[in-house]
Write a structure and sequence with these properties.
Layout: H1 3-13, E1 25-27, H2 36-45, E2 49-51, E3 55-56, H3 57-60, E4 64-68, E5 73-77, E6 83-88, E7 95-100, H4 104-114, E8 120-125, H5 130-133, H6 145-158, E9 163-168, H7 173-185, E10 190-194, H8 208-215, E11 222-225, H9 235-245, E12 249-252, H10 254-258, H11 271-284, H12 289-299, H13 307-314, H14 318-324, H15 328-349, E13 353-356, E14 362-366, H16 381-392, E15 398-404, E16 409-416, E17 419-423, H17 430-445, H18 477-495
Parallel strand pairs: 1-2, 1-12, 2-7, 3-7, 7-8, 8-9, 9-10, 10-11, 11-12, 14-17
Antiparallel strand pairs: 4-5, 5-6, 13-14, 15-16, 16-17
Length: about 500
């Protein structure tokens, strides 16, 4: 251990029980790779700390924090149901949330949003990609020292968990050191340095001596990054890269992307075994299929022309990917468990409630939202309901939609066969509000609303065929009770 590293360790120890960045092996933030299944797998193999992929501040500010009791996760979800960031207790004290930002106050708002669910906050100041730099984020911050100072100082003073940042080196070492001194003086817990210029790419050699120069001028832990392939190919190489740079810790990107068992002291595992362990987490935490496919493609980067590689390319769901690696039974077992738990929860959460309107009539309500991606391309709840009306030879449904002026949100009441249905959720457009009302109507009547069975086998429940008329005695017991209750209430109103 170098004298610089000893000093960094002393600084880290002073932080008490908070996450320490000294003498650590770390999975780097990687776009599309650093999602929950890969982070957990890296931790299993021996990584001390894992970073999520860079997430942009604007996007997080549109999210709500939701505790997912089905998966045992905390989800940060947008209004359309897209999960932007998912984490769980298994990684809570070792996951670092990396943010793309160019504004101190936005950064602080996001940091406060995730503060209770992660171990640290990192600001990306090294990404050279246009999607990051065009917004003044990533490597664009390297030449804006005052903004760097403002962002980091605001975060260090505003949150209770460690704050770090990740940079690239500048063309002149004196400029790099000037920036590094500003960063250290903000009070950050550590500094990650990718030993390349923003114009350089992985094919260009990493500048180990430049990282070493940085480590010699700071007291906080320096995390060396950029050594994959050229230097790091196996676990023993991690220490070699550490020695070459004089850094306290090492951050690994590409080698971890290709095989996260790079973190295993006993050596890399066969990639087939790695993929199976990865897919187990995919199933356990209901990972988004396109992300699963992309990550497995990276794990198979040298073997995509094999029979399994071709089967992966042809796959269209997590279920199909699992079958390629003979994990179909595991997928079926876990998804069945998740589905049954969701059905029990939804039975309580989405119970039909009756609300009396000003005109004395009643509306059946469920607090439910319409997500387009849950439905087949040629089907919507409104189209299913319209077809039902035609088959039953009843008048088409009528929609009355109101707008909430303060936020321009919409809610629609659907009237069909003399009864009214609505969602208590305020949608962002009239069209979506009408779809919500149609869902409530269909669910109350016990009619499938057209949702596709996403990776779920059809044999768990027998649905009524919506192509034939629905007889009165086919309606759900819930709906019969609602009708009976409504009649009783009307009789009481008449008597009074």
């Amino acid at each position: 251990m170098t004298e610089t590293t000893r000093e960094a360790t002393t600084v880290a120890a002073a932080m008490g029980s908070q996450l320490s960045y000294a003498n650590k092996v770390i999975m780097a933030p990687m776009v599309r790779i650093g999602t929950l299944p890969m982070r957990l797998l890296a931790l299993d193999y021996g990584a001390d700390i894992v970073y999520c992929e860079e997430l942009i501040d604007f996007k997080l500010l549109k999210c709500k924090r939701i505790e997912n009791d089905i998966l045992g996760t905390v989800d940060f979800t947008m209004d359309d149901g897209v999960v932007v960031f998912r984490t769980c207790a298994q990684e809570k004290d070792r996951v670092v949330f990396q943010m793309g930002t160019a504004d101190p106050q936005r950064a602080l708002r996001v940091a406060k949003l995730v503060e209770k669910d992660v171990a640290g906050i990192d600001i990306n100041m090294g990404c050279p990609k246009e999607y990051s730099t065009k917004g003044g984020m990533g490597a664009a911050l390297l030449t804006q020292p005052e903004k760097v100072r403002q962002i980091l100082t605001t975060l260090v003073q505003g949150v209770s968990i460690p704050v770090t940042c990740k940079i690239r080196i500048l063309p002149k070492m004196e400029d790099t050191l000037a920036l590094v001194r500003i960063i250290e003086n903000t009070g950050v817990a550590a500094l990650a340095v990718h030993g390349r210029l923003k114009e350089e790419r992985p094919r260009d050699p990493v500048h180990c001596e430049d990282i070493r120069t940085v480590t010699e001028h700071v007291k906080i832990p320096v995390i060396a990054n950029g050594g994959s392939k050229d230097i790091i190919n196996q676990y023993a190489d991690i220490q070699r890269f550490c020695d070459m740079t004089g850094a306290s810790s090492v951050m690994i990107a590409r080698e971890a992307q290709w095989n996260p068992s790079i973190f295993c002291k006993e050596g890399k595992e066969p990639i087939g075994d790695v993929i199976k362990k990865y897919l187990k987490y995919v199933v356990d935490y209901d990972n988004h299929y396109p992300n699963t496919k992309y990550c497995v493609q990276q794990l198979m980067h040298d073997d995509l022309e094999s029979s399994k590689g071709k089967a992966l390319h042809a796959s269209m769901s997590n279920k199909e990917i699992c079958k390629v690696w003979e994990m179909g039974d595991y997928w079926r077992e876990v998804t069945t468990k998740h589905r049954e738990a969701k059905e029990r929860r939804d039975a309580e959460l989405y119970a039909v409630k009756r609300r009396r309107l000003e005109d004395g009539s009643y509306v059946c309500e469920i607090h439910i939202q319409f997500f387009k991606d849950e439905y087949r391309n040629d089907v919507t709840p409104k189209s299913v309901l319209l077809e039902y009306c035609r088959k039953m030879k009843i008048n088409q449904p009528k929609y009355e939609t109101e707008e909430r002026k303060k936020d321009r949100r919409f809610k629609s009441i659907l009237t069909i066969d003399g009864k009214k249905y609505s969602s208590s959720f305020w949608e962002k457009s009239k069209r979506l509000a009408e779809q919500c009302a149609a869902i409530v109507c269909l669910r109350t009547l016990g009619i499938p609303d057209g949702r596709k069975e996403d990776d779920v086998e059809q044999n768990h429940k027998t649905h009524t065929d919506t192509t034939k008329p629905l007889e009165t005695n086919d309606r759900t017991e819930n709906n019969e009770n609602l009708v009976e209750n409504e009649q009783q209430e009307r009789k009481q109103e008449t008597k009074s």
